[in-house]
Amino acid sequence: MFLVFYGAWRYGVRDPKPLREVHLFLTGRYLVTIHRDPLPPLDQQRAELEGRALPSEQFLLYRVLDALVDSFFPILGDMDDEIDDLEAAVLANPTDHQLERLFALKRELVAMRKS
Q: What's the predicted TM-score (pTM) here?
């Protein structure tokens, strides 16, 4: 089976594209993941499971997909905080830069929602 899934990771505070595409090949005996950029949540799963006897391939797939889904939460939390800060700043003294950032955040949220 071939799956395409997404995780999220920022390599810097202003990394403009946090979505990371991951291709997963499930063979019946192995799970192979392919992704262009390093994904620390997958590295963490590998470290936690390395050397352990796993109950099934499905268990491993669950752990990988769960880690990828969970990788969205810190970024969404940061975006929520930034939106709160921008809302307060826009109400006090709006600038073009703040409005541009709000629109950029909206685009990022739309992309994450689609994923």
A: 0.77
How many CB atoms neighbour CB 33 within 10 A?
17
Q: How far apart are the first and last CA of the chain?
A: 19
Segment 89-98 mean pLDDT: 83
Q: Helices (DSSP H) in 6-95: which residue ranges?
A: 40-49, 57-70, 72-92
Amino acid at 62: Y
> What does DSSP assign to residue 49?
H
The single-letter code of the amino acid at 7 is G
- Helices vs. strands in the chain: H and E counts, helices first: 4, 3
Helix (H) or strand (E) holding 78: helix 72-92
Token readout for 54 is: 């796993």
Please count the other Cβ atoms lying within 10 Å of the Cβ belonging to residue 60: 16
The tokens describing 13, both together, are 């505070």
Q: How many CA atoms lie within 13 A of 40 on its CB side?
A: 8
